[in-house]
Amino acid sequence: MAKHSIRPILLCVAVVALSAPAYAQPPAAAAVSDDRANSVGTWNVVAVERDGKPVDPEFLAMCKVTFRADGAWAVLFKRLPVAEGRSTNCQDEFPKTFEMETLGSEGIKPRRYKGIYQLDGDTRVLCMVADGEPRPNEFAAPRHSGRMLVTLRRTIAQ
User: Fold this and answer.
1) 0.85 cut: is pTM over it?
2) Which residues of 28-45 are buried (b: 16+ CB within 10 A; e: fewer)?
3) Residue pLDDT, tens place only, 56-104
4) Measured between alpha carbons, how far is 73 from 41 in angstroms, rounded to an integer?
5) How is 107-145 classified by DSSP, letter by letter?
6) Nearest alpha-carbon partner for 97 in 147, 41, 22
7) DSSP character for 93?
8) Cα–Cα distance between 14 and 27 in angstroms, integer?
9) Read out DSSP for 25-83?
10) Residue 82 phi/psi, 5° resolution?
11) Predicted pLDDT of residue 158
């Protein structure tokens, strides 16, 4: 693995986790599709690109994200929890949008992010920026954009 600080990368992975779709309020009983329910389980972090720079795939192979039905998530690094948070989404927009917040942990302050996502079976793609920046309108993270592009693949449905 290339030499770099693990904390910033773990923060990136934590941001990925935050972007899991979830509602702040319980969904209506008549809802036909609920991305939150479809997200429950464990997901591998397949790829992360930030400002046009990919994160080392060997590092990502040690990361997983778990999502619960209540919208809570956790990032695991070598099976140990390193970050957690909650997120909200809007499935009625195109592309679908989300907002998320990390709960913080040792050495990582709580942060807010917003972005867009697509969920296709067992694959989820997210593009996000820090709160205060314009929400992305495409799934790309070019240099100097402040964007992060993330791909997750489900490993275990619950």
Assistant:
1) no
2) eeeeeebbbebbbebbbb
3) 999 999 999 988 877 788 889 998 988 889 887 788 888 999 888 888 6
4) 10
5) TB---EEEEEEEEETTEEEEEEEETTSPPPSSS---TTS
6) 22
7) S
8) 25
9) SPPPTT-S--HHHHH-EEEEEEEEEETTEEPPHHHHTTEEEEE-TTSEEEEEETTEEEE
10) -120, -15
11) 52
